[in-house]
Amino acid sequence: MADLAFRINPNIILGSYTISRLGAQVHEWGTRYMVIMDPMLNEAQLAGQIMQSLIDRKIESFVFAELAEGPTTQVIGRALGLAKEGHVHGIIAIGGEKAIQVGRAVAAYYNEVHDFYNFVDGALPTSNSLPCICIPTTYRSPFLFTQDIPVVDSRSHQLKFLRVQGGVCKLILMDPNLMLTLTENQKATLSIDLISIAVEAYLSQKANFFSDMFIEKGLEILSYGLDGSPTLDITTPAEVLLAQAGCLISLGAAASSVGVGTLLSLSIYSRYHKSKSLISSILLPFQLEDVAKFKLAKIEKLAHILRACPEESTGEDAAKQFTEYVRQKIAKGGLPTRLKDLNLTVDQLSLPVEDIKAVNLINNLPRSMTTDDLFDFVKLAY
């Protein structure tokens, strides 16, 4: 088992209506903020409510919502320039992974004097970061508790990981009410993506007793959020359960590592702008079939925790039922089942496979995989 070396940097506040206390919470770090906000919050009429909390506490702020391109280096560069012009005291990032990743990157490099692309190409920041307050509106953020930020290099459309200072994120507010705006389709893909992250972290070579604890409890709560409680003792609303499960599984992934499904989905998104969660949900059944060949006991345990198989099922039966459980969720959500359904060719998919071989996280997979192994896996899911 790998040695445990893990530090939780941000303060975490999870609960309904926590967003209404945003102004009071951020006052500790300053009175002038750049708010990087998912434009979907405007459409859901939540942006005004969020900003009012800042106005009521006399916190100056301006909004950056140009996130249509995703967390690209160009978007980060534009946001970084505006933040410096505004002489802000901190960054507030509200939204899905796009907003969170851009916000953390702006906070990390705000005080740097070197060109931003030096850091995209591998240089490490040397200055102190700005305080960053993260408010996720989805319930999976596998990199939120890490020093890694996945971004899209606008020059090459390749996946890159920025390595930032510890403690960039000072506070994480998780308000389940912000997640009520998700469509049923989004909930389905995010839930399967969350299961994928949990499986990857549980089977990673970096897994340890600490990450296992978070993953096991997170999947137990996730099962209640997805399929209801087996008893009448748990009356917590589903959106709260999903937020709790997402927080725990994200912590578990930070203490361990994500795996091939997450890396491939990020890389394919970077190249072709296809939904990361959708790709991850397509890949998960094939991941389960692959890892069941050499991590059967762990897959069986996860299947029981998630209640994806009957209590009496063991071994290969439990693993097959786990895979079938996921495929039923995919079918129920009306989601695509093959990568070819995303209008991509096999030749196009060879590029993202080559891209992730340069990512250090590839070394944390449950088993060593060459580029040929990765491509064979992709062809299987095609």
Query: How many domains in all?
Result: 2
- The helix fraction, in percent, is 40-55%
Strand order of the largest sheet: 1-8-5-4-2-3
Structural class, by secondary structure, is: alpha/beta
Q: Could you describe the largest sheet, including whether it forms a barrel?
A: 6 strands, parallel
CATH topology value of the largest domain: Dehydroquinate synthase-like, alpha domain
The rounded Rg comes to: 20 Å
What order do the helices and strands come in, and which of them pair?
Blueprint: E1 11-14, H1 22-26, E2 32-37, H2 40-43, H3 47-56, E3 60-64, H4 73-85, E4 90-95, H5 97-109, H6 116-120, E5 132-136, E6 148-153, E7 158-163, E8 169-174, H7 184-203, H8 209-227, H9 238-255, H10 260-272, H11 276-291, H12 296-305, H13 315-332, H14 346-356, H15 371-381
Parallel strand pairs: 1-8, 2-3, 2-4, 4-5, 5-8
Antiparallel strand pairs: 6-7
Helix pairs in contact: 4-5, 7-8, 7-9, 7-11, 8-9, 10-11, 10-14, 11-13, 11-15, 12-13, 14-15
